[in-house]
């Protein structure tokens, strides 16, 4: 068991993540910063910093990938980042007369910073655990990281959202290994800072439908290409064996 889990690395990761979160939401260290977009990123930077520090000092063999299983960076960047920015930005312009592109990209970067830690690092370190146990553990750590411990109904709902988010985003990461993809899914709720109403729920439904449909299509396409590649390799191998003297 000790060979599978880097306990020291996990502890370093989480302490650093908590430390940076505490600085951002419980102190006035960043009070002199006027840029709201930078402040958003500083609230979510902890998991990424913690992951990189743990990997560096404990020598944990973890590799992060923006594109994951996709052949090029263009695909996940277009589908999971550019598409929601264009869609939500266009709807915002129609309704409010403004394009919040900078805010949307900031939210995506915020999601990426978190996902480097929660999925890219922590989920990978806990993948040897039973699935439900891993999901529950990540949910609890993720919930505590937010440093909001009020016993309210909204907090209980938030815990449930994190549980299903951990399960769902975890499946996306296991399927794609793309940090861009999971950052997109992570950012769905954060896109809408003024709450979820009719329009927002429709946009979330559209994005989920398009993303899941794309993932299923790409997986099927990739599987078919793999099968064709294997058939061609077998044919080439069979042809080479026939050409070897003494095989006839």
Automatic annotation (TrEMBL):
Where does the CAAX prenyl protease 2/Lysostaphin resistance protein A-like domain lie? 99-192
One annotated GO molecular function: hydrolase activity
The UniProt keywords, alphabetically, are: Hydrolase, Membrane, Transmembrane, Transmembrane helix
| Highest taxon of the lineage | Bacteria
TM spans (from-to): 7-25, 37-58, 70-91, 97-113, 134-164, 201-218
Q: What class of enzyme is it?
A: hydrolase
Catalytic activity, EC: 3.4.-.-
* Protein name in the entry: CPBP family intramembrane glutamic endopeptidase
